[in-house]
Specification:
The protein has 2 domains: about 140 residues, Four Helix Bundle (Hemerythrin (Met), subunit A), CATH 1.20.120; about 210 residues, Translation initiation factor eif-2b, domain 2 (Rossmann fold, 3-Layer(aba) Sandwich), CATH 3.40.50.10470. The protein is about 45% helix and about 20% strand. The strands form 5 sheets. The chain has a 7-stranded mixed sheet, with helices on both faces. The chain has a 4-stranded mixed sheet with strand order 13-10-11-16, with helices on one face. Strands 3-4-5 form a 3-stranded antiparallel sheet, covered by helices on one side. Bound molecules: 5-S-methyl-1-O-phosphono-5-thio-D-ribulose.
Length: about 375
């Protein structure tokens, strides 16, 4: 997507020897565009854990590159003299990567995909070939994400077109958190249909949930939509229900961090409440996902999906530019009494019964096991 009219992705490789993975440090947005270079698996662990990169698909792609960095940082001598020692060093690094964020299944999916390939090629291979193959696979995972997000956009576009055909006016779409290109590699999941609709001349307007505590909607989605010229309005997290009661929302589209085989969805905390309000008001609630977000091993999302708990200070403090100041220095402020304790669950689960359907790279389907299997039968049967 474009940033200041320049094409940009959320993660890329700049030099031919793959020694550095370039990312946008998303903690600095929207006030500063900071590019960071990652050259070790340890740095990638920090970047994922401390949310320099975030969003389920991007976490997965970053972790895939983290595995490449772990391999590149392995000594070729260790690899050839003691392959078992080399393998256990890789396993240590990949475990650290997997432990960074527990809810987004794309992380485990991408690391396991890299490990499956490495395991199959570890014995009897030259180190340089192994490294070249791992780089190729990480690049494939990255490029596939771009392609899948673009297809999600095309499939979601038909939903928006249909609403516009019936309504004959501006289509109002509500979204939660950031499921845009910053959360993926390019295009985004939830925002991909919005961008295509806007580009094809369908008038849309997006209600952007601020998404406390970290403010991914206010900081990232509003920035992305603004860069793309899409009309949007920022709303406090509690506003969606009121807008729905007054027929100001035609469609809700969110992303997801993990979807069970039965169609339950873990997404940023607060998604469930939007789905309840949408159901009560008869408003279609769609979840846009690449297939890498489906966890075929789980069925009951509320009981089985691990929910990340984060530092309470993300709730107790807010940051931004100081009112009335010309400085572009970001300041943090305490918003509660000094001794107030907080809890900070990162995600909640929306049961499939509240979801109108999934928008995937293979098409739109009902939020159910049958629906998902109708598109991804092979994966579902595994
Ligand atoms: O905690 P985050 O910012 O990583 O959470 C991101 C979300 O919840 C997104 O909605 C989800 O990952 C879908 S991204 C396409």
């Amino acid at each position: 997507m474009k940033v200041n009219n320049q094409l940009m992705r959320s993660i890329w490789i700049e030099n031919e020897n793959f020694s550095e993975v370039m990312i946008i440090d998303q903690r600095a947005l929207p006030h500063h565009l900071v590019i960071e270079s990652i050259s070790s698996p340890e740095q990638m662990v920090v970047a994922i854990r401390d949310m320099h990169v975030r969003g389920a698909p991007l976490i997965g792609v970053s972790a895939a590159w983290g595995v490449v960095l772990a391999l590149q940082n392995l000594s070729p001598e260790v690899f050839s003299s003691d392959p078992n020692l080399g393998w256990s060093q890789i396993m240590d690094k990949t475990s650290e990567l997997k432990e960074t964020r527990p809810t987004a299944i794309n992380l485990m999916w991408a690391v396991d995909r890299m490990l499956d390939w490495l395991r199959a090629h570890w014995a009897g291979n030259e180190f340089v070939r192994l490294v070249a193959g791992a780089r190729e696979l990480a690049k494939k995972i990255m490029d596939e994400d771009v392609e899948h997000c673009h297809r999600i956009g095309e499939h979601g576009l038909s939903l928006i077109k249909e609403i516009h055909r019936r309504k004959k006016g501006v289509v109002n779409i509500l979204t939660h958190c950031n499921a845009g290109w910053l959360a993926c590699v390019d295009y985004g999941t939830a925002t991909s249909p919005m961008c295509l609709a806007h580009d094809s001349g369908i008038p849309i307007h997006v209600w952007v949930d601020e998404t406390r505590p970290r403010g991914q909607g206010a900081k990232l989605t509003a920035w992305e939509l603004g860069q793309h010229g899409i009309p949007h309005t920022l709303i406090a997290d509690n506003t969606g229900g009121h807008l729905m009661q007054h027929e100001l929302v035609d469609l809700v589209i969110t992303g997801a961090d993990r979807v069970t085989r039965c169609g339950d969805v873990a997404n940023k905390i607060g998604t469930y409440l939007k789905a309840l309000a949408a159901k009560d008001n008869g408003i279609p609630f769609f979840v846009a996902i690449p297939s890498s977000t489906i966890d075929w091993n789980l069925s009951d999302g509320v009981k089985e999906i691990p929910i990340e708990s984060r530092n309470q200070d993300e709730v107790r403090y807010m940051d931004g530019l100081v009112l009335g100041s010309d400085s572009d220095r970001v300041e943090s402020v305490l918003i509660c009494p000094r001794n107030t304790q907080a809890v900070n669950y990162g995600f909640d689960v929306t049961p499939s019964r509240l979801i109108s359907g999934f928008i995937t790279e293979k098409g739109v389907c009902p939020a159910s096991e049958e629906g998902l299997c109708s598109l991804f039968l092979e994966e579902g049967l595994r």
